[in-house]
What does this fold into?
Amino acid sequence: MAPLTPAQPAAVIVLRLSGDVLPLLKYLSLSASRLTPRKATRATFVSSYNPLITDDVLVVYYKAPNSYTGEDVLEVSFHGNPLIVNTAMMDFTNAGVRVAEAGEFTRRAYLNGKLTLTQAEGVNSIIRATTDVGVKAAGRVLYGELDTIFHDIRTSLIDSLAEVEAVIDFSEELDTPKHIELLARVEAVKERLIGLLDSYDGLKRAVNGVRVVIAGAPNAGKSTLFNKLLGKQRAIVSDEAGTTRDVLSEAINIQGLALSLSDTAGLRQSESAAEREGVRRAADEVVAADLTLILIDLNVQNVSRETLELVENSKAKVIVGTKADLERKSPYKTDVDISADDAGSLNKLKELLVSRARLLLPPDDTLPALLADSQRVECQLALEELGGINEYISLDKQAFHLRSAVGALDRTVSANVAEETLDKLFSKFCIGK
Ligand SMILES: Nc1nc2c(ncn2[C@@H]2O[C@H](COP(=O)(O)OP(=O)(O)O)[C@@H](O)[C@H]2O)c(=O)[nH]1
Ligand SMILES: [Mg+2]
It folds into this structure.
């Protein structure tokens, strides 16, 4: 059992019970004969644990296998007071029911063949997606489109393998037109795998939000900008260089786009061990980020070596001139100039930031793409195996590569996935899913 909704005051809190649920109906003053599957039935909960707690509830019964988990399921909607639901959970615990682990309902659904592992990833991603394209792409995975792609790829490889093996068994040579056809099929599969792999980073950003880091020299105005973009005084602003040391990260939404924004320590050589650690963390954050805002104080003539290196090494970046209200001493070319108290300049920066971040998201007509890192790794392996196939190697070797590629795909989609893989996948889920 687990609450499907957060156990905090709300209009309703729904408790899901899965497994041998019919004996629990007595707590709801109900008999099984009064229930019609998938129809809501009104009932009364009376706690045996604490008879002062009673509630007027709605019960929906899903009969196995036609439920989310594939088992018998009861969903009980209580009035949204956590005290009532927690008491009910005590009653059910006394009756031998245990609280579900994170993702356990979906894990059971997978084990009972209700959805594939790929679809389970889709479930988690559609709940967590922070952008519109993320919701759409996760939905396509959830409805099985990625499974169809994997299935097509696998079928194509298995057919090729069967053909090569048949020729090997009769110790014949594959005639040239057939061989050309086979190599073309392998090429087509490689292209589909490359397409899937290419979309991985974009999709990850679409689900998790684009990671934006603010970096630059000490006192460039990083924490000031961070606070302005968040609309609150989150980071300490000071004219003392080296104030920010920890990386501060916050989720923000600018013009409908979800971003994760981080403020970092100013990049410079420092005597202080704590500041050096801050600078190291800042560098890590820049590497992990999708987009870097590099701040350059226009009131300072020279740009530091560390900042120039940052410009050199960042892939996606926006160069922001700061303190535009002061005398401009820097000749450095920037993408946009801001002044902390000039809303117009901040809006220009926001527009540029959103348009650059959007470029890092997949287009909204994107294919369903890989959502899990494990899938990315196996697809990469399959691609490498297929890369080893050409007309100059023996048929035995071609068969070997094809078999290995099929093996890699099977590890991501087959029914006998290792227990640890399942633990890893479902631990990312929330309780009640
Ligand atoms: N005149 C002016 N001062 C600013 C501006 N932005 C930040 N500052 C000042 O610059 C100093 C350093 O700012 P801070 O945000 O702490 O810089 P950080 O070290 O890069 O995080 C503070 O005294 C800020 O008040 C700006 O747009 N104009
Ligand atoms: Mg700072």
Q: What stands out?
A: The two ends are 11 Å apart (CA to CA). The first strand starts at residue 2 and ends at 3. The first helix runs from residue 82 to 94.
